[in-house]
Each structure stands twice: as structure tokens, then as C-alpha cells.
Design a protein that fits this description.
Two copies of one chain form a homodimer.
Chain A (H helix, E strand, L loop, with lengths): L7 H11 L1 H7 L1 E5 L1 H6 L5 E7 L3 H7 L1 H6 L3 E3 L1 H7 L8 E6 L5 H6 L7 E5 L5 H13 L4 E5 L8 H7 L8 E4 L2 H10 L3 E5 L5 E2 L9 E5 L8 H6 L2 E4 L11 H17 L1
Parallel strand pairs in A: 2-3, 5-6, 5-10, 6-7, 8-10, 8-11, 9-11
Antiparallel strand pairs in A: 1-4, 2-4
Helix pairs in contact in A: 1-2, 1-6, 8-9, 8-12
Chain lengths: 263, 263
């Protein structure tokens, strides 16, 4: 059992929780809690740490998955130092990062019924994670993010995905306009959520392959991105509301597409 | 200019940011930033604090509203202690709490076209604030929350409302089932978002007066609450998603009602 706060592994894991650079260097990310452990693809798990006082309870909750895999016991104090959460559940894993390929992503899903969400510079990890969760819920083909978006592997993002990060393919790209072009070449119609949109979002047919562009929380989409879209759509708003939360805007559009596809 | 971190006012404001009890005792809440100051109803503002280094810029940005009202200057260090944000904008106000009345709330809006959202034990301040923002965007008549929901006046909630807290009437109630009865007596149909719902949400007509019940992030709605609802509705989900984020679920339902009302 690791009991020293100065243990090298303990320091490494704390650094992996806190620093994106460290995560990328080691090509892993940290997930916490029973749900995130249970849903983690087994072949990607490269380390499991369990707090001493919770071991017996976790062996029951996590069933044979935990008993089968080897894990390292750490003292509760050490676990507290590794953990990013206020009320840790006593289990934490290192998981290998994903490297989805844009070409694969563009081909993902039923040919004529793809559904993408393209995020430009989304800053809030909670919003990003929530968008992953909603994207899985509507059966989206994938998520495309600009390089300056929040880090998918930030512990807050990971928590908010509620496991969808394991299942929704995503890529981070340098240049959004060129991805829009690639989407259009695949027969995907690209809709930009924009305050300047003349027509409300529900007026369009999203049953065919569709991508929605969602911009930064404060500034919306860049002009050069908007210019590449096929259509500007508006989510109408009453009162003095100037914009919606980015995860809410994404959800309204994704669920409208999903509603049309199910009718 | 207040320059001492030990100044009584400074300590009081830090306590008002941090403690719900203090806020309720003094019947005020703290708002930060230019937008929240500009949108605050003037008659409710009972204190304005400006960081020395930002005064001149703020007098420009905030125009005559700031020049007209009296404010207290504080040193940047003192402002940092008062502030709850990572990158403070240098303006912070105390605003009088709202005391909306349930009877008034139930009568609010066009008689046959009311739209309520009823929240049972929503725990996350960000979710609660985001629901306020979306509720204003769809022209909702009001928000009803159980007593054990997150605190509306928590600085995180306030920030997430983006000013909607000033404009959407809300009440906190002891007993949700009795409120459901009161809504039904007003002719409002009450729909519970529930995983056990047999019919998808979009199958219903929300053009008449409608209320949506949304449950706690982890546990959903209580059984006694679900039992009072007129209909259980389901938001369909693909993949391994077990539930949606509470603010996302609220948005999907509120925007579907708003879509139907606009068509």
C-alpha cells in the first residue's frame, strides 16, 4: 500500500490530473469514480488505484471487473491527494488517450444520416463534457473541436461526459474551415448557430447528414467559419437573453435533429 | 478608498459571497461584473464597489448608470478578496433578494399559455443558473424549486443565469406535490420527465399551459412527485447514456414547448 505523499507515483498522478501537458506527454488521462471505471474500455486501462478504506465496498460494487484486474492500494490520505473531486469514491484509473482519425470520423455513421457537432473554441470544460453526453444520447457520429477548445481530458470535462468520452469519436483540428469543406464533400449540410441567422432552426430538414457549428461562449463563431457554413440558423430567444449556454444551444439543435429523425 | 483587508465591510461582503445564511439574514446577494451591474434593477441595488484601477474604464463601459449612482472605491487587493471570480472585472454590487409570491407566479403569463419549470432538489448551481437563462429565453412564466435545491443566490448560480435571475419570477417551496395540485387547479398540465415514461416528450401538445418536472441530478424525481404528475414523458436516448444533464433535459423540453407555440 502506498502511504507516502512523497511517493513518485502519487506525485505523477496529481500532475496528470492538473496538467494537460503531462497528460499528453504520457498519452493518458485520469478518470475517477465507479461509473467511469466500470465503463472504461478494459484494453485502455493502464493503472488502477484504490483507497484502502473503500477496497472491500468497491470489490462488491465493481464486481469481477475490479477483482480480475490488478490494482494498487493507497492510503486514504494519499488518495485524497491524487483525487480531483470533493467527495472521492476511492477509485481512480489511468486510461490511454484516444486518437480518432478525422477521415474515419467523417465516414462514421449511416451514410445519409450522419450527425456531427463542430465546436469552435468552447472554453468551459463542463460545457464540453455535457456536449459529449448529449451527442451520445442523440446518436451523433462524432465531435469535431478546434485546437483552442477546452481540454477533453481535463478532469472536469471527463466527469461531465459521464462516460460518453469513451464512446463518442472526437477529433481536435487546427483549421475549422477546411473541416467544413471536408464535411460538405461528404454530403453533410453544415448549419451555423448564429444570432444573425434569418431563419429559426426548426425550419430545416436535419434527417439527411447534418453538422452543427457552435461557437465560443463569449464571442460565438469566427467570421471565416460562419462564411463556410451552408446555412445560418437562429435559435430564437425571448426576453433580454442575448445567447444560450453553449451546451444548451448544442442540445436544442441535436435534439431537434434527433426528433425529426425519429418521427 | 477602502484599502484594508480587515475592513468590516470587506469581511461582510466576503461572507455574503460565501455563505447563504449571511445572504438570507441581510436579504441581499452579491453580483459581479459589468453585465450583472448593468442589468440589475436600480431600485434593488444597495451597494456598489469598484476596484481603483478599473474605475475610469468602468465609468466608460457602464455609462451614466455608474456615474449617477454612488459607489465605494476599494483597492485592487481588497477587491480581490471580495470577489468570487478568477478574473474580476472590478465591479461588484449588493442586490436586494427577490420575494416572489407563489400565488402571483401561478397567475403569471397569458392565461392559456403559461409555461413553468418545477425543479426538485437540483444540486448544481451551474445547472440551476443555466435553467434560469433558458427559461427566460423561451418566455417561461416562472420557476418553482424545492427547498433543497441549490441556492439561487450562490455566486455560481447567479453567474450562470447571465442576468435572467432579475427577470424570471421564481419561488422556493416546501412541498412539491401541493404545488403540482395548485398548478393543475390553474389548468396547467404537469409533465414529469422520467426514465419510466412510456411516450416520448414530442408526442404531447404543449401549446396550452404546461409545467415540466425535473428531478435531482443523481436520483431523478421522488416517487410521490411523479405520482402527482398528469403524464410521464421520456426524453429518448441512444447509446449507453443513462440520463441527460438536468439543464440539458430542461432545455430540450422548454424548447420543444416553445417550438410548438411558435409554429
Amino acid at each position: 500500500m502506498i502511504t507516502s505523499l512523497n511517493n513518485k507515483t502519487v506525485k505523477e498522478i496529481a500532475a496528470l490530473s492538473q496538467k494537460g501537458k503531462e497528460r499528453n506527454k504520457k498519452d493518458v488521462f485520469v478518470v475517477e469514480g465507479v461509473k467511469m471505471f466500470m465503463e472504461a474500455p478494459e484494453e485502455r486501462i493502464c493503472g488502477i488505484y484504490v483507497a484502502g478504506s473503500t477496497e472491500q465496498a468497491l470489490l462488491k460494487t465493481c464486481g469481477e471487473k475490479l477483482s480480475r484486474l490488478s490494482y494498487e492500494l493507497v492510503s486514504d490520505e494519499v488518495f485524497g491527494k491524487m483525487s480531483d473531486t470533493m467527495t472521492p469514491q476511492g477509485i481512480l484509473c489511468l486510461v490511454q488517450q484516444f486518437h480518432h482519425d478525422l477521415t474515419f470520423l467523417l465516414k462514421n455513421g449511416i451514410k445519409e444520416r450522419k450527425l456531427f457537432i463542430v465546436l469552435e473554441d468552447i472554453q468551459d470544460p463542463g460545457n464540453l463534457g455535457t456536449i459529449f453526453r448529449t451527442a451520445e444520447a442523440v446518436g451523433a457520429s462524432g465531435i469535431i473541436m478546434s485546437r483552442h477548445s477546452a481540454d477533453v481530458y481535463n478532469p472536469k470535462t471527463i466527469r461531465s461526459t459521464m462516460g460518453s468520452v469513451y464512446r463518442v469519436p472526437f477529433v481536435s483540428v487546427e483549421d475549422i474551415p477546411s473541416v467544413i469543406k471536408a464535411l460538405q464533400e461528404e454530403g453533410v449540410s453544415v448549419y451555423a448557430a448564429h444570432l444573425g441567422g434569418k431563419t429559426c432552426y426548426e425550419a430545416f430538414d436535419y434527417r439527411k447528414s447534418t453538422a452543427f457549428l457552435i461557437g465560443n461562449e463569449g464571442n460565438g463563431l469566427r467570421k471565416e467559419t460562419v462564411d463556410c457554413a451552408d446555412v445560418l440558423i437562429r435559435i430564437p430567444m425571448e426576453g433580454s437573453v442575448e445567447s444560450l449556454n453553449a451546451a444548451v444551444a448544442s442540445s436544442v439543435l441535436l435534439y431537434e435533429a434527433y426528433r425529426q429523425r425519429r418521427v
